[in-house]
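stuck on this:

***
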Amino acid sequence: MHGWGVTEALAGLPDWVALLFALLTQLADAWFVFGGLALLYLLADERLASEPRRAGATLIALAICALAATVAFKTAFGVHRPAGARTATPPGWLPALFDGVYASIATGDGFGFPSGHATSSSVVYGGLALALDRLWTRRKRLVAAAGVVAVVALSRLVIGVHHLPDVLAGVVAGTAVLLAVWRVADGRADRAFLAAAAIGAVALVAATIFAPNHPDEALKAGIAVGGGVGAAVVWRRVGGEYPSLPARVALPATLVLGAAWGGIYAGGFPPPAAVVGSALVVGGIVALPWAVARR
């Protein structure tokens, strides 16, 4: 795919700029999004939303939708990333101890169109703007969300892992997914989770048909299916506006369950194991406020 020369033009920026944008791109990375939204759900701050638990659950569902939609789109198009996307030279002044970390945050593998980070940021930060109805005004929230999406999209170009059409398509795709799921859910978190499972099932089929040699894509789709189904079942049984969890409970729970989810994400498991594991982890996050309230 012709990238209009933007990525190549940005390749000569100073090392510190590349490092800065490699850090900023983490705003839409899976670990940051999942951990941040899980913590938001558990804390359930009423200063942010009128129904903070429902809003938090819906946002987790939207993040799963973004993951699944990205797999479906990328495997269907099968477009490769720019040359050099899998390699990154760390700044000379960066201690050698951080070379591996820099490589992990400044490179990309797999398919490139549309950008997963641009898709995810559009869904998640757009969802935050819609769901956090007690924070600022909707207009201010939408402007802030657009700013974050723009920074993430630019970061993908600066670190050289996408072309401009990739990130533009990601923003369009993410916005479309957000609006569609928001309408289907109609304020119900269980519907949002079921939508995530449905998109995940489509993504799993797409990955199996179009990308049989890329097992990571099927793994991600399995995570989406399991997370959506598990959370939908748990929310229907025990979901509700339980009191906010104290930080001393919410933070360790987020770290433990987030690490478990990350282990599934990075562990290379077959799709059936990913489905079951993700159902348990995401369902566990959704159930935790109920479990604590019972005690």
